[in-house]
Write a structure and sequence with these properties.
The structure is a single chain. By secondary structure, the protein is mainly α. It starts with a helix and ends with a helix. The chain has helices at residues 3-24, 34-56, 70-83; strands spanning 60-62, 65-67. It has one domain.
Length: 85
């Protein structure tokens, strides 16, 4: 397998990890549950990329809640970088 294919595979894998992280963030689960352990694992691999984006673009206030755009920006950035390979 060539280096560009490995990079594309890694970017695809990370894209789906971020997407799953977003979906699972809507599901409350204890850390003892399998879903909770998966959430903890995904937190560890996704947060390092999300936090710098959140510092630049904080969540947008909408009424009593907030809309976090950082995962969307990260997903778009991953697709842009993937397109370079």
């Amino acid at each position: 397998m060539s280096i560009p294919r490995i990079i594309v595979f890694a970017l695809d894998l990370y894209f789906y990890a971020v997407f799953l992280w977003v979906i699972l963030s809507w599901i409350p689960a204890s850390s003892a549950h399998a879903v909770g352990r998966l959430q903890t694992f995904l937190d560890r691999i996704v947060y390092p990329a999300i936090l710098p984006i959140r510092r630049v673009i904080p969540p947008v206030r909408i009424g009593g809640g907030a809309l976090d755009l950082s995962p969307i920006i990260l997903l778009v950035a991953i697709r842009i970088v993937r397109g370079l390979f």
